[in-house]
User: What shape does this take?
Amino acid sequence: MDQTFVRQYAFYFDASACTGCKACQAACKDRHDLPADILWRRVYEVAGGTWKKEGSVWIPAVFAYHLSMACHHCQKPICGESCPTRAIYKRDDGIVMIETLACIGCRYCEWACPYGAIQFDPSSRVVTKCHFCYDALAFGEPPACVAACPMRALDFGDMAELGKKYAGTREVFPLPEAALTEPALIVKPHRDAARATKETAEVANWEEI
Amino acid sequence: MSDNGLIKKKLEAAPMKRRSFLGWSSFFGGSALTSSGWAKALRLGPRAAAGPSAQEAGPEIKMVRTGCPSHNCGGRCLLKVYVREGKIVRIEGDDRPADGVEAPQLRPCVRGRAYRRRQYHPDRLLFPMKRTGRRGEGRFVRISWDEALDKVASEMKRIKDAYGNAAFYVPYGTGSYNQTNGRQTAQRLMNLFGGSLGFYNSYSWAAISCATPYVYGTNITGNQRQDWLNSKYILMWSWNPAEMRDGTNSEYFLKKAKEKGARLVCIDPRMTLSAVGLADEWIPIRPGTDAAMMSAMAHVMIAEKLYDASFVRTHCLGFDETQMPPGAEGAESYRDYILGLRDGVPKTPEWAEPVCGVPKATIARIAREYATTKPAVLYQGYGMQRRAFGEQAVRAGCVLAAITGNVGIPGGWAGGIALQAPDGGPAWIVFPTGPNPVQAQIPSFLWTEAVLRGKDMGPADGVVGAERLGTNIKMIYAVACNALINQHANINRTAKILADESLVECLVVQDNFLTPTGRFADILLPACTQFETWGVADGWKYGDEVILMPQVVDPPGETKSDYRIAAEIALKLGLHDAYTEGRDERGWVAWSIEYFRRQRFPDIPALDEFEKSNIGVYALPVTKPAVAFAAFRDDPAKNPLPTPSGKVEIFSKRLHELNKPDVVPAVPKYIREWESPFGPEAKRYPLQVIGHHYLATVHSTMDNVDWLREAWPQRVFINPVDAGARGISNGDPVRIFNDRGATVVRCRVTKRIMPGVIALPQGAWWSPDEKGVDRAGSVNVLTSERWTPLAFGNAQHTIMAQAEKA
Assistant: This one.
């Protein structure tokens, strides 16, 4: 991709093809040498629905899907707005960066981010997060997570170009309303995503994220 | 929708242990990036700033393409491994530019991506050790290689003199699985030393590899996977390639099939990752009742005349009374059984509903969909055959494929074990073990029997090659094998057997870590990992590629390759030259590549060129996928199957003549399992337990990898209905127990499993407390050593147990 024209890097995620295998998560951890408990990319398991008994048989009306989520490099990065030292800033290509030297470890950004993208590193007392593998982009390589996906369910590119390439949405349970931060994200929803908003659904794997 | 749930939860999460970063700082000293504005801004530049890319990998960083270490995971994938100063600092996946379906990239799964955390785990075994305490206590002292090898060699001589070669055993184990690493290196040594008791069967697919040929005469029943793109309907029966892989890219091919319009239906007690990410529909079924649902589907097809009568007439045997083989004319045909003409029980969906826990309307609908949406695949996973009567579900599925006419056509699927057409696919291990002078073989699952009473074991216990074994197993040399304790059934029983030093007199265990099996060793030999020596592998069941595995880094401590260790024992026994034939590990890799060239890959580059190119993989693109039984389909008279009749044997005269109709019927039947929700045992132990494959481990390998346990913690999965009835809440520690043992593990209350069934993923390392209660969630404290009636295979998913809040 010719980076000259990139106004806003964005991730595309195909929830309809994601098996939730977490190869993306591990690829990210390997590339950035993240210890256990710091997840720049995380996979949420959403599950819902009911079981009911008819005669001797339990009938499922159960659904589930996965969302592989990193930092969405929002167009309105609320994390940055909440930072008292202005340590979080946006590059010309849309990537949201943390100026680690300026971070005082107050974790307000972590509180503000509605996506759980900010990950506090207790060993260095600063916050960390996905930076879109910007260094790889500079060499024309994809982010580690995108290259890793065995289902080829992740893609990346300029937000406007991705929007032309893929139909999708940013309104998927349990993500917050996109208007809040304008995430640079396009999701192709799983077939059961609509059920998650109509029926009872929850994130089912909190301990893993 | 506007709930900020994600972040709230993260902050509320209980504090967990955290580790410091691994220290990329030294990695980046002087790299080009430090001069960039971004990196300057970063106090801890390395973490946020980056890692090496291929282009920046200067003289200090070497990138090697190699195979992901082979552990019998179900795939064979390609890695790009970055090495700096003798250490692997990053692992990337296959990035070959072409990624079409003919020869797609071999992208590794989460386990391959997390491999550095195994490679550099602080618990690696680094030195030979010998036991100091009682056997199984786990107390060892470091010894020299010379002492260790002397001890092994002298024990081998002593056992040979006292009991003969049939007292040696090199058990089934797949913890290291390429040409120069793994149990075959020890088998070659034993064979040169006069042989050892052999085995057949695996713990993966004993029943299916035995039962499939009774229908088709061969195990080569699978089309090349690209052919799934020609299918309109894919029934994934007990098949979960997203979690166990079953061939690198299988899940990707299924996605492609779906994009082309195929409907995918998943039948499984669990709503697996495959059911969520691949299938259009999930149908939960009670474990062990697959043959009942298949029979009911056949009933619908017969009653509604949906089966392919023409194919049945010309290509099959034993469907009805008009096509019974000579000598069995009066026997019960398949149609007789399905319609209940002999036993008075028609196998209708109404009959199957309470057995399977699947609504009769659903059974009938799936029968109609599968019979009328052509071509269709009914893919049989292996979980359903590691069960009491696993052979029945295998044959029942094959018969459905046959009577719907899906055999031998593009987009169809014959079922069964499905080794890949036309030639059976990958060769697995080609390293030559040489002839074993001991002819006798046992079924691999019966090794504890051979320890206890091998002397008198014969064909009734599945022994082949001898009328009697004549001796018990007295010495075990276990290489890359945690299947003695952890992966074998009924751990508490096995542990007692192994702890008795009068039974197995010498136990040598060779591995990367001190596994639960290793704890019982007399001598522990430290093996290096597959990154630390040379190797080569072809696909796993599927695949049309050879992956080179050059040595990437040096072995740590005093570790050596499995091959090197065996060669050095051979030296002590005066067999070194015969063992090595003058080759080192790399020499055998070169030898193996020449083997692959003769076998399936005529144009594969020779080793020097292969290595120099750093391409890592040599792949044959599949442009026209082979279809199993295509010639038979075209002309069954000219191209008969290798069955006795030359036809698809719905009725097997061979099985008929076994005269065990209650456990090995001549036509596939549903047989109630010896432990089931329908027996008296269900009063005390009402829950069925399945030990499914889980992405945290490859069997028991990688159980100790923190990145994987962070992603996939060991949990027992239980439905809210069963949890609620027991006062169990999500996250509670739960005690699961039956007469064989007990384990305590935290639970995940999930709707993604059917009521009455709990799932405890296999592979967690057995960790008994002082009372013998396992604390790791190791499923094999609950499993039974009882074997299946035809294959003598493991039935480790047939378990009843109870669960309570611990």
Notes: Residues 6 and 12 of chain B are 10 Å apart (CA to CA). Chain B touches chain A through 90 residues (CB under 8 Å). The longest strand of chain B covers residues 741-749.
